[in-house]
TrEMBL record:
Protein name: Diaminopimelate decarboxylase
Orn/DAP/Arg decarboxylase 2 C-terminal domain segment(s): 27-373
Species name: Stieleria varia
Lineage: Bacteria, Pseudomonadati, Planctomycetota, Planctomycetia, Pirellulales
Pathway assigned in UniProt: Amino-acid biosynthesis; L-lysine biosynthesis via DAP pathway; L-lysine from DL-2,6-diaminopimelate: step 1/1
Protein family membership: Belongs to the Orn/Lys/Arg decarboxylase class-II family. LysA subfamily.
Keywords associated with the record: Amino-acid biosynthesis, Decarboxylase, Lyase, Lysine biosynthesis, Pyridoxal phosphate
Gene: lysA_1
Length: 419
């Protein structure tokens, strides 16, 4: 984003028009931004989108059309990928199931379609091997350390439940042998919102573990984790440097094994975060003691990242009348409609409420919460019996509805009152 605190349009679409046509709260995704992010990663052999970040089937379809394959962590994500036109099974590995367990339904579905599996526990190797003897698998390795933007998104080290512990490769290979399973790839994802500092350590660990597995390795995956700037003083990772380190690792392995090892990357946030905005309407502006609260029709049921991680999102104001650029700035706390004090978009990890200097708001103005395209809608809930918002994609100058706003009927679907 440009970190401006006022905005009248998103990719040329007036915010007022989007709000009046589709209602608020509303998620809007600019497809051009996603396409740019895909292009940024062209040096990698395979871009595998971690669809958990934003899994609307229209978004998945557009990823597919750009040659991006997908990661799936559940039955629902496998089915979404299929609904978006991805081919399950086969050698192209368009869908890979990556998890630390198989629930029974996931194991059934993976076996039924012959979907590729990235095993995050030794048990997964045995469970797949029993049902699909002779399978090829990749292993997700926990290298013994991790890093994320929050402790909750750090996925390495012994506090983390993720992956196969780096010193248990022998046991995994024994288990694989029992079922004729071949380990053809390795994967490491040490956390979401990670940094470059840990990268050389990850690459070293990858090389060492690949050496232990041996020549059956045909691909390595750098996992996800690429950060995007949420604050004006944050920066992107130097992608050229990131690729260079992984490429060098891959090249050494290719040489060692005598065949070209494929290099994958598995981003979620990097591809979708900056494409997405959450538009909400200001419904109350009130003083509480010394504080000024601006309350929106969107809450943590719509965007959970602030309450969950103390995550910071850029926020801008679109005035209903006139231009917010002409308004005086005031310190305001931006909150939602829910029955909890944590329903605040301007907070830090630990639940500390912050205020933000923004153009003074009036009821009826719009507020845009930016960089909300990753882990936004997908983490939305029906708490307080709120209907989840609509989703719209901006593409070729048009605003297209890709998910209807939920209705009361959606809320009570499946509920019954026994006699
Ligand atoms: N691969 C694996 C195995 C993952 O577990 C994840 C994210 C990714 C790739 C994609 O990571 P990314 O490129 O998006 O950083 N809800 C949190 C983030 C949770 C990430 C979970 N796993 C948030 O809102 O920050």
């Amino acid at each position: 984003p440009d970190f401006a605190t006022h905005r009248n349009d998103i990719a040329g679409h007036p915010i007022k028009d989007l709000a009046s046509k589709f209602g608020t709260p509303l998620y809007v995704y600019d497809i051009a931004v996603i396409q740019q992010r895909i292009a940024d990663l062209a040096a990698f052999d395979v871009i595998r989108y971690a669809q958990k970040a934003c899994s609307n089937i229209a978004i998945l379809d557009r990823m597919r059309r750009k040659g991006v394959v997908v990661d799936a962590v559940s039955v629902g994500e496998i089915q979404r990928a299929i609904a978006a036109g991805y081919t399950p099974g086969g050698d192209s590995h368009e869908i890979v199931y990556t998890a630390d367990i198989f629930d029974r339904a996931a194991l059934d579905l993976v076996v039924e379609h012959g979907i590729a599996v990235n095993c995050g526990s030794p048990d997964m190797i045995s469970q797949l091997g029993e049902r699909r003897p002779g399978a090829d698998v990749t292993l997700r390795i926990n290298p013994g350390f991790g890093h994320g933007h929050s402790q909750k998104t750090n996925t390495g080290g012994q506090q983390s439940k993720h992956g196969i512990w780096h010193s248990q490769i022998d046991e995994c290979l024994r288990r694989a042998d029992q079922h004729g399973v071949t380990v053809t790839g390795l994967h490491m994802h040490i956390g979401s919102g990670t940094d470059l500092e840990h990268l050389s350590q990850v690459c070293e660990a990858m090389e060492r573990v690949a050496g232990e597995v041996g020549r059956t390795i045909r691909s390595i995956s750098a996992g996800g984790g690429l950060p995007v700037p949420y604050k004006s003083d944050e920066t992107y990772v130097d992608l050229a440097k990131y690729f260079e380190l992984w490429d060098a690792t891959r090249n050494r392995l290719s040489e060692k094994f005598g065949h070209r090892v494929q290099l994958e990357i598995e981003p979620g946030r990097y591809l979708s975060a900056e494409s997405g905005s959450l538009i909400a309407e200001v419904r109350s502006v009130k003083k509480v003691g010394d504080n000024l609260f601006v309350l929106l029709d969107a809450g943590f049921n719509d965007l959970a990242r602030p309450v969950m991680y103390g995550a910071y999102h850029p926020i801008s104001v679109c005035a209903a009348e006139g231009d917010a650029a002409d308004r005086e700035h005031v310190d305001a706390i931006i909150g939602g409609p829910l029955c909890e004090s944590g329903d605040i978009f301007t907070q830090r990890e630990g639940g500390f409420v912050d205020s933000r200097s923004l153009p003074i708001c009036r009821v009826g103005d719009f507020v845009v919460i930016e960089n909300a395209g990753a882990y936004g809608f997908v983490m939305a809930s029906n708490y307080n019996s709120k209907c989840r918002p609509a989703e719209v994609m901006l593409e070729g100058g048009e605003a297209k509805l890709i998910r209807q706003r939920e209705t009361f009927q959606d809320l009570i679907r499946g509920e019954t009152i026994p006699e």
